[in-house]
Amino acid sequence: MKRRLSRKSANLPPILARAKRAGIEIPTRFDDFVKRTNGNVDGGLFSVTADKASTFGLTADGARAIVPFLRLGDGSVVAFWATAGKLPIVHYDSERGAQVVGVDFDDFLARVALRKSRVPDIDEWDDPLVIVTVKPRPFGALAKAFTVFNQTHREIVLAP
Q: CA-CA distance, 49 to 46, in Å (whole number)?
């Protein structure tokens, strides 16, 4: 089945191309998210964009599993993480921290609506973005698996 996403944002094709290379299908509600935000919320506190995964200091193998879709005003990024047939949502903060922020895209959207996304720039929006109203699910083993993924796929930075 071919997906049709709103093409209002020039940044969508790179997101879709990265997703295709990662072998993932962007969730249906992503289009709702883009339409509701028009790619911009709260006067420019974020943009829907496909950042380079090198931003996170990941190896090439690690970068292939990460599909960034949201750049926040503080420099942090929210991304899809393609792992074991699942598509959790992850956050890389501006100081190289990383965490799971949604079991999947619907779970992430539910957390955003409740202002419990674990992403400060999103939780502090004046008006919460409500697209779905499902009960958030526990991260369980995903959080640990993502920690291991980042430890395994971080580039080594040598001190001068």
A: 9
| 98 beta partners | 92
Q: Give the C-alpha separation, 97 to 76, whole Å.
A: 9
Q: What is the pLDDT along the chain (160 residues), one digit of tens a residue?
A: 333 444 444 567 778 888 888 888 888 888 878 777 665 544 445 666 666 655 577 888 888 888 888 888 788 889 999 987 889 999 998 887 899 999 999 999 999 888 889 998 888 877 767 777 778 889 889 999 999 999 898 876 554 5
The predicted model scores a pTM of 0.81
**Of the candidates 75, 47, 79, the residue with the CA atom closest to the CA atom of residue 62:** 79
Strands lying side by side in the sheet with 89-92: 40-41, 46-48, 66-72, 77-81, 89-92, 98-102
